TrEMBL record:
PANTHER family: D-AMINOACYL-TRNA DEACYLASE (PTHR34667:SF1). Keywords: Hydrolase, Metal-binding, Zinc. Binds 2 Zn(2+) ions per subunit. It comes from Methanocaldococcus lauensis. GO terms for biological process: D-amino acid catabolic process. This is D-aminoacyl-tRNA deacylase. Its EC number is 3.1.1.96. It comes from the Archaea. Gene3D superfamilies: AF0625-like. It is an enzyme of class 3 (hydrolase). The gene is dtdA. Monomer.
Amino acid sequence: MKFLLISSNKDLASKNIASHLKEYFDIFETDKELLELKSSDLEDADYYIFLSKHRSKANQPSLTVHTPGNLTENNDFGGNPKEVCPCDAILNTLLLKNIYKNYNIYYENNKISKFDVSFEVVHHSPTDLNAPTVFVEIGSSEKEWVLKEAGEIIAKSVLETIEMIKNRDYEDRLKVIGFGGGHYAPKFTKLALEYDKYYFGYLIPKYASVSEDVLNQLVNKMEVDKVLIDWKGCRGEDKKRYMEFFKNKGIDVERV
């Protein structure tokens, strides 16, 4: 089972996280931006974990987890239109929960200031990888990107997650795709962190009305037990389409 950890020398947060992992892992380092990478740039692996910065206009300190991909024709941030990377719901959710756990230890010991810990929805490149792919990110400005403690939290969480998966040290739970809500998937983040019921994989926001082609990729590139729809956070016409699509696939849909 090979985990490829990917770091960019052009990304301050990436270099920060990688510096805390190098004694435990061989890091795949590149002089390209992470969003410029394609499958042809990388070694074959069973899992790809990108160590990355997160940028937002609000500059809110944050630690985030998400699978990359383009849900629509818009590929302004690289990759192919309407293409998503494979996703492992267990990997994504264990990463989020470990980051949250380790962040809280640091916060309670006054080693770090207030950060948000959350999922993000599917967005940006790369899109053409052939194994489960996830980004773990420090946001949202240079001040946080270089913060030693933030890098330590992400690194420790990555190591713990890899060990849990290698040893199969986790419980069986439903693997789900979530539809609806905003970019930081607040409802699904809350469900992941506060309840031990689901492993969350692909998260699709309200603003992305995805086509049947993309819906097919979601079920073909991830092991799916159930679909959750944020009922108040999803357009009516999209809810109808999604429910019909998954019903025809024999996949249960639950309103949350």
